DNA sequence: GACATAAAAGCAAATAATATGCGTTAGACT
DNA sequence: AGTCTAACGCATATTATTTGCTTTTATGTC
């Protein structure tokens, strides 16, 4: 089962969803996710457990849903005046956010849900959208065109790979060198 | 809770572990993992559910444990005579295995367990070990030294990223171009 | 504005999974 | 052989999940 796609804003469904999401976020700050249960979330959100079971199916799917919502960017990348600056600023905050303990947990949650592919696809779409804005801006300035796919494959992917599979989070120097290398060899056809 | 590290081979613990792992593998072929339950696995393995709960904690951890075991390489990379050939052969089978439905599921399982970092770390260690063998072989032949980290960051990572986050599995052309690019610019200091 | 409709939530009871105390057994070590 | 310990089985208690049915709430129609 999966969360409904289109929910009228302001309706009862939306309110329930909001309070459940809020309850999850609140509880996750206080306790470990291995202790988290659906009845507990239901109580904290002021709804019946069966409501959650019917809408989200199980805990993994609910957590995935919450994580996707939290990973959704809320504004465009900062405009620093230069493409390089835009990219550096964006990746700095991206790495910072993603390699934090909650960030790692959210990424895992997104992948763990029953509909892992769907949720994960949405997340990478967010990332691409953000980078696309920077790419478009570069083109608008008349600078050399950026290769979005190269950025994803050679900067984003190694960063996320490290976050998911390595104990130590990616260092500042690490992602900067990835970005350097990518910008230096833009279209290695 | 986590599976014990060192278990004497041939002991009762080892037998229980083997039969539980086998039961999980067997059941996963027949039915969806969302239907899979611990009592069911216990019955199929001929043990008591409490045994599984005590040893593995929960289903996610058990699945992670099984997945790590299945991802453990059972032999060295094939020796094709050339480094390039070794890499191509190895990546061909790696991508094939990892992007299959069971492969994707296993990768997700590894990340989903309570001790995600530990298990994931083990998997990337397997990969590095395999690639290290190829690197050593290259050095032995007197060829140019390969950059293991570059292979992981710029070939393995984009492949795994695609498998985890994209709906469509990485194409043959995709990983070949990654490998090409990596071999052409080996030490881009 | 009252009324019908449908989707979603609440409630409560039934079922299933998970946790745990305690006795038993298998293997390790002397 | 005898002892010791870790792990298992069994039975029981607790907790989570599912489900049928009722009630609520928002929406669209007259």
From TrEMBL, chains A, B:
Residues 14-74 form the HTH tetR-type domain. Residues 37-56 bind DNA. InterPro entries: Homeodomain-like_sf, HTH-type_TetR-like_transc_reg, HTH_TetR, Tet_transcr_reg_TetR-rel_C_sf, TetR_C. It comes from the Bacteria. The keyword Protein transport does not apply. One of its GO terms (molecular function) is DNA-binding transcription factor activity. Keywords: DNA-binding, Transcription, Transcription regulation. PROSITE patterns: HTH_TETR_2. Pfam families: TetR_C_11, TetR_N. This is TetR/AcrR family transcriptional regulator. It comes from Siculibacillus lacustris. The lineage of its organism: Bacteria, Pseudomonadati, Pseudomonadota, Alphaproteobacteria, Hyphomicrobiales.
């Amino acid at each position: 089962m999966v969360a409904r796609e289109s929910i009228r804003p302001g309706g009862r469904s939306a309110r329930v969803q909001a309070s459940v999401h809020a309850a999850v976020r609140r509880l996750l700050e206080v306790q470990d996710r291995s202790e988290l249960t659906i009845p507990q979330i239901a109580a904290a959100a002021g709804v019946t457990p069966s409501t959650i079971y019917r809408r989200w199916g199980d805990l993994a799917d609910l957590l995935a849903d919450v994580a996707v919502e939290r990973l959704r960017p809320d504004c465009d990348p900062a405009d620093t005046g230069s493409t390089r600056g835009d990219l550096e600023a964006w990746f700095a905050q991206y790495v910072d956010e993603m390699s934090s303990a909650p960030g790692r947990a959210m990424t895992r949650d997104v992948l763990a849900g029953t509909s892992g592919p769907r949720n994960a696809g949405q997340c990478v779409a967010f990332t691409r959208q953000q980078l696309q804005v920077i790419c478009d801006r570069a083109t608008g300035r008349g600078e050399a065109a950026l290769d979005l796919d190269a950025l994803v494959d050679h900067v984003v992917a190694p960063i996320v790979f490290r976050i998911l599979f390595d104990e130590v989070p990616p260092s500042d120097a690490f992602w900067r060198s990835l970005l350097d290398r990518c910008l230096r060899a833009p279209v290695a056809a």
